[in-house]
Design a protein that fits this description.
single chain, alpha+beta, about 40% strand
C-alpha cells in the first residue's frame, strides 16, 4: 500500500471537523495534537501576546483516496492550512521527483528554544510556524531520579513555506549555536506534495 500523510494545522477545536470529512471519504482515522502558532507580528511576539492555540491533525491515508479526501477537507470551514507529505512507499514504487512548491522545515529542540529559532527563521524569510510540545524518549544514558529517567522536554517547530525560499531559512537556522551543541536540536525538511489554505 502506498500512503501519504495528511497534515492540517488549524485553530483549536477545528481538527475534529476536518477528520470527520476525511473519514467520510475513506481516511482510517488520525491523531490530533495540541500546538501553538507563533506570532506574526514581532511587537506582539516581544510582548508575549502573539501565540495562538492550534491543533495539528495527522492522518495516514491511501494514495488512491488522497484527492477525494483532500477535496473534502478543503470544503470544511476551518482556519489554517492542510498539506500532504509522503508517509512511506512500498518497495515496488520507484523514487519520485517531488515537484511541489512547498516544503515543511521541522526543528526538534530543547524546550524554550523554539521562539529564538522562529525569530531567526522569520529574519530569513519565514512568515510563521507552529510549535508542538513533546518529550524525548528515555535511554540508558539518561539521568535517573528515584529510579526513573528524567526525560527532557522538547519542542517541535514546523514551518511550511515556499521551496524557493526554504534554503535561506534552513541555512540561517543551521548556523545557530543551539544546533551545533550535541543533543540540543536537530533540523530536517520534507517536501510537501499538496498544499491548501483553509477558510
Amino acid at each position: 500500500m502506498i500512503s501519504s500523510t495528511l497534515v492540517a494545522i488549524v485553530k483549536k477545536g477545528e481538527a475534529s471537523k476536518l477528520m470527520s470529512a476525511a473519514r467520510a471519504k475513506g481516511a482510517p482515522g488520525g491523531s490530533v495534537i495540541s500546538a501553538r502558532g507563533t506570532a506574526m507580528n514581532s511587537i506582539l511576539a516581544a510582548l508575549g501576546l502573539g501565540d495562538t492555540s492550534r491543533e495539528v491533525l495527522l492522518s495516514v491515508v491511501e494514495r488512491e483516496k488522497l484527492d477525494e479526501i483532500l477535496s473534502a477537507v478543503k470544503r470544511v470551514r476551518a482556519s489554517g492550512i492542510a498539506l500532504v507529505i509522503d508517509a512511506f512507499r512500498g518497495a515496488e514504487e520507484e523514487e519520485m521527483e517531488m515537484d511541489g512548491q512547498y516544503e515543511m522545515i521541522q526543528v526538534i529542540c530543547q524546550d524554550g528554544y523554539s521562539e529564538d529559532i522562529m525569530a531567526v527563521a522569520r529574519r530569513a524569510g519565514a512568515k510563521g510556524g507552529t510549535v508542538v510540545n513533546a518529550r524525548g524518549t528515555s535511554t540508558e544514558q539518561d539521568v535517573k531520579f528515584f529510579g526513573s529517567p528524567l526525560v527532557p522536554e522538547k519542542e517541535i517547530l514546523m514551518i511550511v513555506m515556499e521551496k524557493s525560499r526554504a534554503e535561506a531559512v534552513r541555512k540561517a537556522i543551521s548556523q545557530m549555536e543551539i544546533l551545533n551543541k550535541k543533543g540540543m536540536g536537530i533540523m530536517f525538511s520534507v517536501p510537501v506534495r499538496d498544499f491548501v489554505n483553509l477558510g
